[in-house]
TrEMBL record:
It comes from Kribbella pratensis. SUPFAM superfamilies: Glyceraldehyde-3-phosphate dehydrogenase-like, C-terminal domain, NAD(P)-binding Rossmann-fold domains. Pathway: Carbohydrate degradation; pentose phosphate pathway; D-ribulose 5-phosphate from D-glucose 6-phosphate (oxidative stage): step 1/3. This is Glucose-6-phosphate 1-dehydrogenase. NCBIfam families: PRK12853.1-3. Residues 31-196 form the Glucose-6-phosphate dehydrogenase NAD-binding domain.
Length: 477
């Protein structure tokens, strides 16, 4: 049995060994499993390109590997065009291009894995850009090879296919490297607007004192896309909107939105607070049937494109009943949040790309008599993509001198040239797990949505329909 020899056995999840995170400063070798796949060219390599083009560029050597044979030039061209999608090739990107190589082989073959590790040298990052079953098979084989000290393992979502498989994968991974060397990638944690939730809440006198059930009526976290399947039916038809977006990304956004202040911005502190928040998160009023709604698009026009009915899309098994729009309401059972509904929603082929958090404050209990008009409370909208803030506040004089209305305070967040994937990769390459999902959190996110998934699979909740290009089923509020 291989694995590296460390003294991590007594550590709690998320704790570090003395080789503290964030200490890697020299060149790192990134070994990408599934390198010839769509995800690597569409997201991972452009993300890395954006990092290499900016002031936080770091020295990276990439070894791509996969079953498909690729000529050396073909691989280098793929990496180049992914980097070029971010503009001109920077000198750091040129260095990476000059040294990159591709090694074809069976990733479950121990000899192939040994050869890759030999080529990669000290403290490599092994990045699994593959479906969970394939990743698990490769990780199981890594037990039979000696991993170099400082090896980091990075995993694309979904991490496992349910809480049980995520726990099994966690156990396997934990037998190889300490938790702080494990990076479960969720690119939403690399979004400026998501990271800024920490600034908005904990470095701000205005919001934090009212950030609780006493003042907040309800919260929505919405990621509606006009995009359809984009040729990803093989993956999406198995996942559906709930697993694709809510189980992972939106629950993590929720965690940052509701968690208590971390003592420091260290990965241990921040990830512990996120985990604590999610441990208190349950389906609203405990009902798997009432807490969720699902729907699937039929033919229509979205974003000026003619979209066929989901059931007729290439690669879709219509009988499977996969939802393309999901909504789940949860509550956070803490003194701070009890009773507040948090609705998480995401879907494809919708009419409007609505990507925002909407925090609705309670109206004041009493207004001076003589003030007329709307008495709505404030609403804070936090745009997720692009990063924008808009606070609607009651104001006098909108329709007459003593008539209440709403005015808006708007701000745009500074945009980063580093893509969310690049931001997450930056942490991985430095060995800092701050923007990576901790193992227990990955399991917890599955546990929260599993009762809903089970109710949907058992047909206990109807699969509604909406026209592509609409804003969802007409019967939904
Ligand atoms: O992980 C995913 O995220 C994207 C949405 O994120 P974006 O950064 O591309 O806007 C979603 O389209 C995709 O289905 C999902 O797998």
């Amino acid at each position: 049995m291989g694995g590296i020899i460390t003294t991590h056995a007594a550590l709690l999840p998320g704790e570090r060994t003395s080789a503290a995170a964030g200490q890697h400063t020299g060149q790192r070798t990134l070994v990408i499993f599934g390198a010839s796949g769509d995800l690597s060219s569409r997201l991972l390599l452009p993300g890395l390109g954006s990092l290499l083009a900016g002031p936080r560029a770091t020295s990276v050597r990439i070894i791509g590997t996969g079953r498909s044979p690729l000529a050396p030039d073909e691989w280098t061209d793929r990496v180049r065009s992914a980097f070029e999608s971010r503009g001109e090739i920077s000198s750091a990107a040129a260095d990476t291009l000059a040294t990159t190589e591709y090694v074809a082989g069976d990733p479950t073959d121990v000899e192939h894995l040994r050869a890759l590790l030999e080529l990669a040298g000290p403290a490599p990052v092994l990045y699994f850009s593959l479906p969970p079953a394939v990743t698990t098979a490769i990780v199981a084989k890594l037990r039979d090879v000696e991993l170099p000290e400082g090896t980091e393992l990075a995993f694309e979502k979904p991490f496992g296919t349910d809480a049980e498989s995520a726990a099994a994968l966690n156990q396997l991974v934990g037998s190889l490297v300490p938790e702080e060397n494990v990076h479960r990638v969720d690119h939403f944690l690399g979004r400026t607007a998501v990271l800024n939730l920490i600034g908005l809440r904990f470095a701000n006198r205005l919001f934090e004192p009212v950030w609780n059930a006493e003042h907040i009526e309800s919260v929505e976290i919405v990621y509606d896309e006009t995009l359809g399947l984009e040729g990803r039916a093989q993956y999406y038809d198995n996942a559906g909107a709930l697993v694709d977006m809510i189980q992972s990304h939106l629950l993590l956004v929720l965690a940052l939105l509701v968690m208590d202040a971390p003592a420091t911005m260290d990965a241990v502190e921040v990830r512990s607070e996120m985990a604590r928040a999610l441990r208190s998160t349950h389906l609203y009023r405990g009902s798997a049937i009432e807490a969720g709604r699902r729907a699937r698009y039929s033919a229509g026009i979205a974003d000026d494109r003619v979209v066929p009915s989901y059931a007729d899309e290439d690669g879709v098994d219509a009988e499977r009943g996969t939802e393309t729009l999901a909504e789940v309401t949860v509550e956070v059972d803490t003194n701070r949040w009890a009773g507040v509904p948090f609705t998480l929603r995401s879907g494809k082929a919708l009419g409007v790309a609505r990507k925002e958090i909407v925090v609705k404050f309670k109206p004041l209990r009493h207004l001076p008599s003589g003030l007329n008009g709307a008495r709505d409370g404030e609403t804070l909208r936090i745009g997720l993509n692009p990063g924008e803030l808009s606070l609607s506040v009651p104001a006098l004089g909108v329709d007459g001198p003593y008539t209440m209305g709403q005015v808006f305070l708007d701000a745009t967040l500074p945009s980063s040239s580093v893509l969310p994937y690049g931001e997450v990769l930056s942490g991985i390459l430095r060995g800092d797990p701050l923007l990576s999902v901790r193992g227990d959190v990955a399991e917890r996110c599955w546990e929260i949505v599993e009762p809903v998934l089970a109710a949907w699979r058992a047909g206990e909740v109807p699969l509604d329909e909406y026209d592509a290009g609409s804003n969802g089923p007409g019967t939904w509020k």
